[in-house]
Amino acid sequence: MRNDRQNTKPAILFLCLGNICRSPLAEGAARAAFARAGIDVTLDSAGTGDWHVGHPPDRRAQAEARRRGVDISGLRARQLSPGDFCRFDLILAADESNLRDARAIRPADATAELGLMLDLLPGRRGQGVTDPYYGKDDGFASTWDDVDAIASALVARFSPSG
Ligand code: 4NP
Fold first, then answer.
1. How far is the CA of 80 from the centre of ligand 1 (A)?
2. Would you put residue 150 in left (φ > 0), alpha (ψ -120 to 50) or beta?
3. How many helices (H) and strands (E) does the chain have?
4. How far away, in angstroms, is 133 Cα from ligand 1 center?
5. From CA 127, how far away is CA 94, in angstroms rounded?
6. How far is the CA of 156 from the centre of ligand 1 (A)?
7. Which of 18, 29, 74, 134 has the highest count of CB atoms within 10 angstroms of its CB?
8. Ligand 1 nearest-atom number relative to CA 24
9. Which domains does the chain have, with CATH numbers?
């Protein structure tokens, strides 16, 4: 069994469809939360689709993150690859559709745990983070609220005292 993850810091990958809205917001919120907690982790995000590869996050996502004090302008979209299942400990999908697409390319020797982002929050199990891409700008505020709560849950999970 291949495992590229032995004896290293925890590595978490956030996954959505385009990697320009939900998962870069989740990565940004998690980067801020883990930095505040002083916990060293590897964080990244990816999309199941390839339409936006190389693009920065959606301008509305960048604006919402900035409003919350987090700069995600330097992130660039990439597509999920089979190798990610051995490079990360945890791959967190924004919704069921992303989860299905991820399972479809999961290699037999995958070591990463795969689940939904909102499974980390009591009472939200099985729910998807709403995709704000096709909605109005204010959808990004509730997306941030969700990914920020997910980031706090992750910090608690990976906290040395937790
Ligand atoms: P995301 O949102 O999966 O949260 O990044 C979307 C971004 C782009 C598209 C769909 C959803 N798109 O169809 O291009």
1. 14
2. alpha
3. 5, 4
4. 6
5. 9
6. 29
7. 29
8. 5
9. 3-158 (3.40.50.2300)
Q: What is the pLDDT along the chain (162 residues), one digit of tens a residue?
A: 456 666 589 999 999 999 999 999 999 999 999 999 999 999 999 999 999 999 999 999 999 999 999 999 999 999 999 999 999 999 999 999 999 999 999 999 999 999 999 999 999 999 999 999 998 878 999 999 999 999 999 999 999 875
- Indicate if ligand 1 lies below 6 Å from the C-beta of 18: yes
CA distances from 127 to 48, 119, 124 (A): 18, 7, 6
Whether the CB of 95 sits within 6 Å of ligand 1: no
Amino acid letter, residue 69: G
Q: Catalytic positions, please?
A: 16, 22, 131
Residues in the chain: 162
Query: Which amino acid makes up residue 133?
Result: Y
Tokens of 122: 């009591």
Contact 27, 71 (CB under 8 A): no
